[in-house]
Design a protein that fits this description.
The protein has three helices and three strands. It is α+β, with helices and mostly antiparallel strands. The chain has two domains: 49 residues, no CATH class; 38 residues, no CATH class. The chain has a three-stranded antiparallel sheet with strand order 1-2-3, covered by helices on one side. The longest helix is centred in the C-terminal third of the chain and has 20 residues. It is elongated, with a radius of gyration of 18 Å.
Length: 104
C-alpha cells in the first residue's frame, strides 16, 4: 500500500506563477510537506478549472476517510441484511484499491 501524506491538506494562494499550493504540516514538528503546486494559465476559463482541481486535491484526505468509513458501514449493513447494493460496494472497494495501488 502506498502511504500518502496524512491530512488535513491546506490550500493557499501561491506566488504569481504558482496559482495554488496544497500542503500539510506534519505533527509534532510542524514541518511543511508540499503536496501539489498548480501553475497559473493566462487563459481565463482555464483558471476556473485549475481552481476547482486545487480544491479537489486539497480535499483528497477527507474524501479517502469518507470512502473508508462508507465501506465499513456498508460491510456492517451487509452483515445485518440491510444493504443489497453490491455494485456500490464493489465500486467503492475498487476506488480505494486504485488510490492505494503502487506504480500507477
Amino acid at each position: 500500500m502506498n502511504k500518502f501524506t496524512p491530512g488535513p491538506w491546506h490550500l493557499s494562494a501561491g506566488t504569481y506563477s504558482q496559482r495554488w499550493v496544497v500542503d500539510s504540516k506534519s505533527p509534532p514538528t510542524g514541518k511543511q510537506n508540499l503536496i501539489a503546486m498548480l501553475q497559473s494559465h493566462w487563459k481565463g476559463n482555464e483558471n476556473d478549472t485549475m481552481d476547482a482541481n486545487a480544491r479537489l486535491i486539497a480535499a483528497a484526505p477527507d474524501m479517502m476517510e469518507l470512502l473508508e468509513r462508507t465501506i465499513a458501514r456498508l460491510k456492517q449493513w451487509d452483515r445485518d441484511n440491510i444493504c443489497n447494493d453490491d455494485d456500490l460496494y464493489t465500486d467503492l472497494i475498487n476506488t480505494v484499491a486504485k488510490i492505494k495501488e503502487k506504480g500507477r
